Amino acid sequence: MRTPDEIQTFLDDDVDYNRELKGPTCRSPRLVMRDRSAQCMEGAMFAAAALERQGHPPLILDFIAERDWDHVVAVYKLHGGWGAIGKSNYSGLAGRAPVYRTLRELAMSYFEHYFNRRRERTLRKYSRPVNLERFDHLAWRTALEPVWEIPEHLLQVSHHDLLTRRQQRSLTPVTRRMYTAGKVGLAV
Which residue, 174, 165, 47, 72, is CA-closest to 121? Predict the structure, then answer.
């Protein structure tokens, strides 16, 4: 994997979505490679480790949703633009090309595709980037045990609002067409 796009393609084509049937997991990139399975947190950590091998810092970004699951992606900057790599069971929540001037722009690019099964638009906040080097003492890249300290840390990181209260109150449901398109590949 020599480019961010190759990392995203690997996650899309060669890694199954981890439905965590035996309970929640938070596996290292090493175990994602071994098992060829990942949920969003595991996919973001894998992508961050792969991006680091390409010379980028291992950064992740956390999204907070209302009445929905949170989401995590790896982020990188290339030629002045922010991009993202992610694993999701919704088609619109994977990666983004590195064309966004700010992290807020990048986060807003997920807004239309971030919805729950009631067709509610649910994305509300995004975090500052977290550099996973701060967890090197856990051997997060190769650990054989779960690395729960990383998602626990994301709960403590400051997050920025994407919408005002007034904007939240005026949201309309996602169209049936968008909802159907977003569920392509959904692991139920």
Answer: 174
pLDDT digits 0-9 by tens, 136-160: 999 999 999 999 999 999 999 999 9
* pTM, full prediction: 0.93
Nearest Cα to Cα of residue 41 among 10, 91, 84, 87: 87
User: Could you identify the residue written with the tokens 């999701």?
Assistant: 88
Q: Give the length of the chain.
A: 188
Rounded CA-CA distance 149/88 in Å is 21
Domain residue spans of the chain: 4-182
Q: Are 88 and 71 in contact (CB under 8 A)?
A: yes
Inter-axis angle of helices 4-14 and 40-53, nearest 10? 140
| Helical ranges in the chain per DSSP H | 4-14, 29-35, 40-53, 103-108, 149-154, 165-169, 176-182
| 85-139 per-position pLDDT tens digit | 999 988 899 999 999 999 999 999 999 999 999 999 999 999 999 999 999 999 9
Q: From residue 28, give the alpha-carbon distance in Å to each of 6, 15, 100.
A: 19, 14, 28
